[in-house]
Write a structure and sequence with these properties.
2 copies of one chain form a homodimer.
Chain A (H helix, E strand, L loop, with lengths): L2 H12 L3 H8 L4 H10 L2 H10 L2 H9 L3 H8 L4 H9 L3 H10 L2 H11 L6 H4 L5 E4 L4 H10 L1 H7 L3 E5 L5 E6 L12 H4 L1 E2 L4 E2 L4 H10 L4 E5 L5 E6 H19 L13 H28 L1 H6 L2 H30 L7 H31 L2 H31 L4 H27 L1 H4 L1
């Protein structure tokens, strides 16, 4: 791209909304991206990068020299800076941190020390922090002096700490409107406020904000020292990400989010790492068919129904997986309740298995004319539906209980087992009834 | 349950967090639920019901007489009241609305007029609304008088309207701290503030809050009249729901969310309505096998590889679906970009298809000893991977463009077509090369 067209492109980008910019950006080459990022005002570049997920944002930042990268990053909220820098290779991260103002770099270092999905990784570290001896007038004065800065901070509460930095009270900002200005914070603050630990995981935080209407909650370390403020939005943002990730994983995008702007070899490798596990799992089901090859050869009509049994059982099982995943995320079942979940699935499976088995039996008889073929595939689908919903319901609990990610492993485990069982049932029953079928 | 044990249960529930209550609740019978809901303080019952999704909340509310239901609903935010009441049968809804205070009922009626996923359905209608002639002192006085009420409202901005109720300005609450009390709102307000229409859909609202750091935005009708306030959390809450729903739908829970506390016939019927469409789609793939029955009979080893081809292609296609769904939701591809998406998928499919085809060819030769069998299944899997990723990538765009829900229909459409193509490729190639295979 020549200089003139880049100039025009920058102007064009300036006139677009962030979402439109992101759309255009995802259709550009790396070189052009870098040129435009350098040309955009730092604040706009920061908005644009903020539209992408962390790994994509990190890729874009790596297109720039550390000086330019730092200028852009500075315009982002500290927690987003930390997310992006945390995704960079250590050397690049360090180079950029060197270019950031000391205070900013220190704040980022503090946040990158925590994983993204605990309170410490989601909190903001800039906040209004006062001593309890201060009067309301003094506080208003101080806020007034830094008004511009504080507006950026999106301040909702003032926090009161003791000499050791331990949190002792909280004051909603608007309350400052309603009290006499000579009063001391210690008298009007809410004492012993609720707080969360820096190490509190996403689930606990989501429950906190579901049970309480607060917009933010102070984050403290093990000694009760105030380390930051966690906003409700930050938790909801992580919840959206978690739900989206579960969806991607359940569909086989496992090694990290993929966008079609990424290099083809990276996309291919990530997808293959997952597919190659799956091809291996598939050999189990193939082995069952191989074992019954002779039966299949003498009743070739069975081959027509094997894929239906496999697909339908997988479908029934996936429904059970989805309900278990949902109930786990709502906290209304626990990973130990195998029996309860199994029984609830069993009852549904009994109805659905009978209906589906009956349907497929009718189809088989119409197709082949032999009623015994209908019995074999009907009974097999009915039984395999029961197996599929039982496994589908219970497997997510088991995986969760033993510390695996149920979104990733439930599907393949389920289809592997239901395929094997389904083929075994059809071909095993057919072998037993072989004289009636030929 | 006798009275004594219910009493004890109520006390026990009182001592639990909302999440724990929800857990216990989802393990109780309807009768017991109703008794406990009546016994709990209305505020606690409202918190508890708020923990469940709308349809479940509506079920719980229906367990109660309309008087008791109204008492509990009154404790919920207006927008949640509207969500729950909107899910009730019309007669029950009307009975409860009769029991609510007039103003409350009117507000609910206004909100239920909008779908859940547009600005009008997510906004709150209670807000601070002033005239531009008022002074800061008058405003602070008025807020002070209703301080308790306003704290519940979670007030962040004051809105300034003209005589016709049209929005003319906005004032962040904390700004009231920094200005002289004799000044008029008209002088200090932010003029021509940003707003959204009552009919703005979720996607537009999500983009708004992504591009702007505001905590809330005023909602106006076509004439610019202020109708309510939309909070950032409300939009994020709907985003979480949308992501979770996409996951559930992609796994075959289509007719509405399912919890295992629902009656077994309802759960069974909802799942079956989906499964029965699927069994019909499966007949297409079965027909392909039936057509090639003779080839299959003479080379029975092919039957061993059919399920692998089917499962692997489905897996590759699902990966492409997931990436397309993600890019659509991020707005970085548009529903018209078939060619671009197809080409990006084609390149990945070429690599992955070759690798997987090679793998399966090796397995086939090891299994059967005939190199031509390897060629047949290898080439078939390679070609079918290309087909699967092309369809998987493009189908969500097509469905979206023509107004269908891509989360629901992408998966089944994909597997139907890839199964048919996969079986056709394997058995067609085998028929052509029949002399070499037998």
């Amino acid at each position: 791209a020549n200089e003139g067209s880049v100039e025009e492109l920058s102007e064009l980008l300036d006139s677009m909304s962030v979402a439109e910019q992101a759309y255009v950006f995802s259709h550009m080459e790396d070189d052009a991206e870098a040129v435009v990022l350098r040309r955009l005002p730092a604040e706009d570049a920061a908005d644009l990068i903020g539209h992408f997920n962390e790994s994509e944002a990190a890729r874009m930042i790596q297109l720039l020299e550390s000086q330019a990268a730092a200028t852009i990053l500075q315009e982002m909220p500290i927690d987003e800076q930390a997310d992006v820098i945390g995704d960079l290779p250590e050397k690049e991260a360090e180079a950029i941190l060197q270019e950031l103002p000391q205070q900013n770099a220190d704040n980022v270092r503090e946040l990158t020390a925590y994983p993204d999905n605990v309170a410490g990784g989601m909190m903001v570290v800039e906040m209004l922090r006062f001593r309890s001896e201060m009067t309301v007038a003094e506080v208003i004065d101080e806020i007034n002096r830094g008004a511009e800065h504080y507006t950026d901070l999106d301040v909702r509460y003032a926090y009161v700490c003791d000499d050791e930095g331990r949190l002792v009270g909280v004051l909603p900002m608007q309350n400052l409107l309603f009290v006499k200005r000579y009063r001391k914070l210690g008298e009007i603050m809410i004492k012993d406020p609720l707080s969360v630990r820096t190490t509190a995981p996403l689930e606990e935080l989501a429950e906190f904000f579901e049970s309480h209407v607060y917009l933010g909650v102070p984050v403290v370390d093990d000694d009760g020292v105030l380390k930051g403020v966690l906003h409700r939005e930050a938790v909801q943002y992580e919840e959206v990400r978690a739900a989206e990730n579960d969806y991607l994983k359940s569909q086989g995008i496992v090694g990290g989010e993929e966008l079609r702007t990424m290099p083809v070899w990276l996309r291919s490798r990530r997808r293959l790492s997952w597919l190659s596990i799956n091809i291996f799992l598939n050999l189990g089901a193939a082995a069952v068919i191989a074992y019954f090859q002779e039966t299949l050869e003498s009743v070739i009509a069975l081959a027509v129904f094997l894929p239906i049994i496999s697909d339908m059982s997988g479908c029934s099982g996936n429904q059970a997986v989805a309900v278990s995943m949902r109930e786990l995320s709502l906290g209304i079942i626990r990973p130990t309740e195998f029996f309860r979940v199994w029984w609830k699935e069993f009852t549904v499976g009994l109805i659905n298995g009978s209906v589906l088995g009956g349907l497929i039996a009718v189809v088989a008889v119409l197709f082949d004319g032999n009623p015994y073929l209908g019995v074999v595939v009907g009974v097999a689908l009915c039984l395999n539906t029961l197996i599929a919903v039982s496994i589908g319901g219970v497997v997510p609990l088991l995986l969760k209980r033993f510390g695996f990610d149920p979104a990733v492993a439930s599907g393949p485990l389920l289809t592997t087992v239901t395929d094997m069982c389904g083929f075994f049932l059809v071909l095993g029953l057919a072998t037993v009834m072989l004289s009636r079928l030929t």
